[in-house]
């Protein structure tokens, strides 16, 4: 079975079996999207309004900015895989609660095991805190982190970045995010 087929099967399973309370208020589950064979997986926080309506991650303004940054390093959306730690939109785009993150955790870990990326890029603090609960994104953004993750069964490389939405609201952060984003090709070279 191909990775794509495994992901499709996984999403059908978890769509039926996920017990996350957000399922009650969201329109639909927002599955990860993109290249199942990618060396890079981007992990965001949770679907927003546009994503909840469209059923795909990062299709709003933050997604448009993400696509622009990918083009800036010679990549396209189709080259990468992108998902969220929470698969359902929190009401009014509030931050996901710890129990909601926990309810979607097995789903996320299963996605990562199937894809087995060389590099996981965190888009914002919520996804970073899942794997690095004591770090502050302001201290580690743009730095390559290596950590053994027992659930993934391997040492994994991570690159924490600010969330693209933060850069849309804070112009000063935009330059920082673009600068950090441009480190992705070098990080991949280092890992290889």
TrEMBL record:
<protein>
    <recommendedName>
        <fullName>Type-4 uracil-DNA glycosylase</fullName>
        <ecNumber>3.2.2.27</ecNumber>
    </recommendedName>
</protein>
<dbReference type="InterPro" id="IPR005122">
    <property type="entry name" value="Uracil-DNA_glycosylase-like"/>
</dbReference>
<dbReference type="InterPro" id="IPR005273">
    <property type="entry name" value="Ura-DNA_glyco_family4"/>
</dbReference>
<keyword id="KW-0378">Hydrolase</keyword>
<keyword id="KW-0227">DNA damage</keyword>
<dbReference type="InterPro" id="IPR036895">
    <property type="entry name" value="Uracil-DNA_glycosylase-like_sf"/>
</dbReference>
<keyword id="KW-0408">Iron</keyword>
<dbReference type="GO" id="GO:0046872">
    <property type="term" value="F:metal ion binding"/>
</dbReference>
<keyword id="KW-0479">Metal-binding</keyword>
<keyword id="KW-0004">4Fe-4S</keyword>
<dbReference type="GO" id="GO:0006281">
    <property type="term" value="P:DNA repair"/>
</dbReference>
<keyword id="KW-0234">DNA repair</keyword>
<comment type="similarity">
    <text>Belongs to the uracil-DNA glycosylase (UDG) superfamily. Type 4 (UDGa) family.</text>
</comment>
<feature type="domain" description="Uracil-DNA glycosylase-like">
    <location>
        <begin position="31"/>
        <end position="182"/>
    </location>
</feature>
<dbReference type="Pfam" id="PF03167">
    <property type="entry name" value="UDG"/>
</dbReference>
<keyword id="KW-0411">Iron-sulfur</keyword>
<dbReference type="InterPro" id="IPR051536">
    <property type="entry name" value="UDG_Type-4/5"/>
</dbReference>
<dbReference type="GO" id="GO:0004844">
    <property type="term" value="F:uracil DNA N-glycosylase activity"/>
</dbReference>
<dbReference type="GO" id="GO:0051539">
    <property type="term" value="F:4 iron, 4 sulfur cluster binding"/>
</dbReference>
